[in-house]
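Q: Nudix hydrolase domain-containing protein, please. Structure only.
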Amino acid sequence: MSHQRIKKNVRSEAIADPHLKSAPQPICDHTDRNSERPGSSRRCTSDGRPETASTPSMATQYTAEQFVESAGAILFKLSTRQICLVHRLSTGEWLLPKGRRNVGESRAEAAIREAAEETGFQCRLLPLTMTTRAPPAKETANCRDKPRVHHGVCEPFKVTCRPLSGVANLKIIWWYIGAIDEEVSPGAGETQFEVRLFGFEEVEGQLTFSTDWDVVRKAIQIFDAIHAT
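A: Structure for Nudix hydrolase domain-containing protein:
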């Protein structure tokens, strides 16, 4: 007899014998927000307090002094179908414009500010049709966590998580898609960078890091869905 069937028989016998009934587990009306079932309840301790769920083994938490948030933008020049890259003169690396988010600044604001500072181009976020797990702006009741297509949104389309040196240090980079304002003459970017525009087919061979190309490739895919020639 298998172990599974043994357990099943023991349970049946326990139900049949009223003397073997265990005391019911206390139930409280604290809503379990992590449950997929609307209105489900969490089990409570004997004094009525909600039980604390165990932390998943893969979860990692960072305090504010252990992580840094950055934001960057893939800048498209719409009229010529080109992408802006920055060349760090001290290292020779070709990179995407990005930088750290300041206190009180939104991620989207940081992406545009850093792109403008490093490149000298005035720019804006480009409204997109994209798939994201972010709920709709007007969220309905019981909105399930799943990917949805949204139109005309300026959401981050990719995120990079990069461990830093030291114990439990992390850099998080939020990526947006932006457009260069072609009616405004470019200003002076940061002196540590040279700024150039490249055609879509040139960018992969120019970027120093393959992870940056992964970001650009996804950006081009989203861009071409609404700005295809």
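A: Brief note, in case it's useful. Helices lie at 3-16, 107-119, 200-206, 210-227.
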